[in-house]
Design goal:
With about 200 residues, the protein is of the alpha+beta class. Helix content is about 30%, strand content about 30%.
Length: about 200
């Protein structure tokens, strides 16, 4: 449990006109860079728009100190539906397997800005049962298919949450690290993954 061998940094101007996210994986020597530029017609020169703020992020194993931030991200993602299952018990399950999944934080003691993990549907756990039942209810015409998939196969429930301003590029290294961790640990030989995420419709 502790810091992972990966690093991400974000450089941001006060006017948010230039954003850059860089991920470096020390093992593969790969680098991911994202630049988002927006035109701003207002005169921000007098407001210090050229001042650069550098923020460094690190990847960590899930830790008990992350409990409340992870619970808030779950509740924010599921909205009013979050009362249909025990989010506290769900986070406890994630924290009970610290070698699986990652959080993105500024340092070891800060709140996570994002996390990713996978939970086995074969775990005899009430939160897992609640999530599976919730997904089947939400599956609409595919409910029967999903129910059979969850009943007959070893499925990994993939959770990927981040705060709204966290660049999506952090998902790529987290997913890569997660797949590596699942291969090394017993009991995570999933036949299928179900990505649990919010969806917006008109």
């Amino acid at each position: 449990m502790g810091e992972k061998r990966a690093h991400a940094s974000e450089s941001e101007s006060d006017s948010e006109s230039d954003k850059q996210l860089t991920h470096t994986d020390n093992e593969s020597n790969r680098q991911l860079t994202h630049t988002d530029s927006e035109e701003d017609g207002s005169d921000n020169d007098s407001m210090g728009s050229n001042e650069i703020v550098n923020v460094d992020f690190e990847f960590f194993d899930p830790q008990p100190i992350d409990f409340h931030a992870m619970k808030r991200m779950f509740e924010g993602s599921f909205g009013d539906d979050s009362d249909q299952f025990n989010t506290s018990a769900l986070v406890d399950l994630i924290l009970s397997q610290p070698s699986i999944g990652s959080t993105v934080k500024m340092d070891d003691d800060s709140d996570p800005y994002a996390f990713m993990t996978a939970l086995s549907t074969r775990r005899d756990s009430e939160p897992i049962k609640q999530v599976c039942e919730y997904l089947v209810r939400k599956a609409g015409p595919k409910a029967q298919t999903l129910s059979e998939l969850l009943d007959k196969h070893h499925v990994g429930l993939l959770f990927s949450e981040r705060v709204i301003n966290m660049p999506p590029q952090v998902v790529v290294p987290m997913l890569r690290m997660l797949m590596t961790e699942l291969e090394k640990e017993d009991g995570f030989d999933f036949e299928y993954f179900v990505l649990v995420c919010s969806m917006y419709s008109e």
